[in-house]
Amino acid sequence: MDTAPQWQIDYAREQERRGERTLEQVREPAKLLNSFLQVLLRVWKEQDEIRVDDPKILFVEAPPSLGRRESVLGGGGSTLLDGIQKYRREGETEKKQDIVIGEIVIGSTHSTEGFIKVVNRISNNGLGIFLFHGYSLVFENQKKNQNLRTLLSKEDVFVNAILNLPEDFLGRISSSNAILVIVSKTKTDLEYIAEFEDWNGNSTGQFDAVVSNLFKLITDSKNSGVTVESRDQCDDLWTGGCIDPEQFHGFQHWTLQKALDYFESDFLNFKRHKLKEVVKDIRLARYNQKFTARENTFYMPLIGPSACVTKINTIAIKHQNCAQILVNEEIVLPEYLTAFLNSDIGEVILATEKSKGERLIPKLNKIKIKNIEIAIPPMKVQKEIVVRLSKVSLIMQKVGGLLKNISINPVSSDDDVEKVESILEIVEGLTEQERIHKLIRNGESKVVEFKETLSLDVKKQTKEHYIEDEALKTVVAFLNSDGGDLLIGVKDDGSITGTEKEMKKFYNATPDKYLLHLNNLIKHKIGEQYYPLVNPVLLRVDRNTVCNIRCSRSKKEVFYKDKEFYVRTNPATGLLEGRKVYEYIQNNFS
Predict the structure, then answer these.
(1) What domains sit in the chain, N to C, each tagged with a CATH number?
(2) Could you report the per-residue pLDDT of 436-446, keeping only the tens digit for each?
(3) Which of 212, 231, 268, 398 has a CA 20 to 30 Å removed from the CA of 479?
């Protein structure tokens, strides 16, 4: 704790008094970046074409124009550059530097001019590594050419990578998510993105993977005739990947966009239209102004989680925070549009548009509304959907009436209680099915993994122990990390294949035998003492049976076969060995 900035210690004490976390749980941003920088310097020396054997380093203090003394990185760079060879602070030399690193805020003319001076200190083969407070403030600011890419390109310096830092990295200094931007004089058509989810540093090898991928992008771009367009893909943020900067609108937007790729919905089978193609008018209300009711309109909230509605008297928020949208009734029904936008897929689409720019308060505007993509079926199908949903709404009203009667007559309303219990049996089944659907829609992550089978080799149609091992290693990784859900009977692309074929082939189509075999595997390869943390259940999902193994975080380290230690590294299971096992256990288990 001695090296943590005083403001951070004070903040932790405030949280300790409120019972939120203890002083020992204070995270040190400078130490995390120090660990990353150590890896970057080591890997850099291994690069044949762009190697710098004895790099000169310049540390840049947080600019005084911020109007505060608090710095995320601490004073003078002492923690940030601990254990690294001699470095200089800003103003000590005017020479070019191989690494320029520091905390930067772009805003005022003074701070922007100061940043440009700093950027021009980067040598031809050097790197700039800058901590910024928020993606939108840096990359989607269109005022006075403050967009970072525009500023840098004028100096023949280019963004190579954007790294998202842990959520509470900035502590009380800012509610924005901190990002680390890496720049150089090498122009890359694409940019590399990745995310550091937690504070475990390089205990899972993530820093090595990120730095290696970054240098590969820079090296490929330096080599004449080598194109990087084919590498325009990023499947997960742990290993990261290359993206087209024109299509990237921040990490929250990227995550939501990925979630859309996993949706399985009838809506996705319908023809898609931009909203601007099917509406006649979009009106916004001024402060304290109210809309006048119009036919064929619906109301869309610009901020917050409120639902879209068709009736003006059901708007739940102030009219100034809504848009009144007049639709082309020959193409689409306003009732259908509200049904679509209030569905799970519609909520993700709206959240995706709101997140463009990643403001502190995500908000829609006319341009974003016009670009919202809507799935629109033929008019006959729209009417059928509206009728079905109106029936569901009627059921909700009836249930509300039953509950009201029970609350008034809790003793004499036995008939109503029986009706509610019958409804509850149906709803609970639907709720669990929807939970699985939601996990699949969101895709594989640090807490969700898909496996097509438990034991069956699909190609050879034989029972294989290595396939069982892969599932059990994932369970161990969940126990050692933050818990999670393993779904067996779901392919990597999110399609549901079920466990029926495997169950019929090896377990006489008997669910109990399937679960008994699974529990025996857990007992012998993980340990029966972990039964309370591992809950396998079979669930019916879209006429298929999926095995959902729900795992809770263990308070004690868990080994596979008493010797192998696995953790989750975003959407993958990683084996830790040697010192990394010791470091992970020290950091994560008491």
Answers:
(1) 28-248 (3.40.50), 262-377 (3.90.220.20), 381-442 (no CATH), 448-588 (3.30.950.30)
(2) 888 888 888 89
(3) 212
